[in-house]
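Minutes, methods subgroup
Present: GH (chair), OT, SY

1. OT presented the first of two proteins processed in the latest run. Sequence and structure tokens recorded below as shown on screen.
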Amino acid sequence: MARPTDPARRERVLARAADHVLAHGLAGLSLRPLAAALDTSPRMLLYDFGSKQELVSAILVEARRRGAARVAGELAPETAGPEERLRALWAWISAPERVPYVRLFFEVHADAVAHPENYPDLATLVTDWFGTLGATFRDVTEGPGDTVTPTVVMAFVRGLLLDLAVTGDRDRADRAVDRFAGLLRA
């Protein structure tokens, strides 16, 4: 009879694997070097996670959990207008401590374009934000079921994140946020 997996060990390994991927990315990730970096064996990784793809999925869920701090509560006071909330969202998501998450986010999306079969739940990276962004920008949405406004805000922010990651031009990105914030007023 096989012994049951140790959930505490699995969580410890997952936490360290997520740290590793956030630091080094997913490109070229293979079990043997990852196991060596985690002081375990490829066999134990497969025992705990079933397959490399299940391990990667668990790492992405863990990275998302870590990166998705309570945005609505951290953004701006309830009394702030949509412009202030957009600026707060930008400051939060583009902060230097979130660079590893942003880098991993774009790496996963680029890989998903080439290999969508490896990311069956990738759409949830978009749809998971509808409720939070809908609530955050409630005064400029078309009601509780509006997914267009969160999509526009998300597309804008992600586009600027990519621009910032590629060019490093923080000043121009911040000015673009100010310009878009003015459009929210209208």
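2. SY then presented the second protein from the same run.
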Amino acid sequence: MTHDHTHMDWTALLPLLERGAELRDPLHRQAAAWLTGILPAGAARRVLDVGSGPGVLSALLAETYPYAEVVAVDPTPELLERARERTAGLGGRVTTLRAELPGDVDALGEADVIWAGESVHHVGDQRAALEGLARRLRPGGLIALVEGGLTARHLPRDIGIGRPGLEARIEAAHSDWFSEMRASLPGARRETEDWAALLASVGLVPSGTRTFLLDIPAPVPAAVREHIVMTFTRTRAGLDERLPDEDLATLDRLLDRDDPASLHHRPDVHLLIARTVHTARRAS
């Protein structure tokens, strides 16, 4: 898969998705603890993890809401299979459901908590997706929508090779790709990404927005470095027609294990991510 294709090959992305979610565990735990301050753990009997991917967050939600059934919801069978493997030791409390928004939303059943982690932006009609999810919430139920934040940073502005500002240009190129991806989705409809306003527009009551930070400074552990190499490998393959030749040459050096300036050896590699969680409740 390349970024110039609007189709996402989620099966091919499984290792990157899983490792990325594992590394963001501290961030997600902060978010989950915040959610229990809005809806106590004992108040949830059924939780939906919409766009669950390989089930990393499904397991965390089962831990966060220990009296609830958790359903990992995703349209990709291979990701759901991995979610089943990851959660096999949780006593059957996590189940999986193959479904795609917005068409399959009524098949999800009712829930006290819905976690939608960076999944709604892959639906053409985001408002329709939120309307459907709002219908699935029981009275007093809570939706947590993870959208936005800040693009991950891994390197200083000037890395000593190529033109300074490489990651800023990668972000701009990815933003163009993302807009094209959104426009190509079935039923695509442009929305102002004021998520609190969108949640209110579908009949929910916004209950707060917070941004959570993951900061792993240099020098990073080996597992983080490996994930960053995977991320840049995908970037190089996906943006080869969107970045200037100079930046592509810099990426090649960053990925060359034999180059002392590569991501494999650099002492300044780090991981800094911010993710925003928007919450809303259904009136009791």
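Chair's summary of item 2: The chain is about 40% helix and 20% strand.
Next meeting: continue with the remaining queue.
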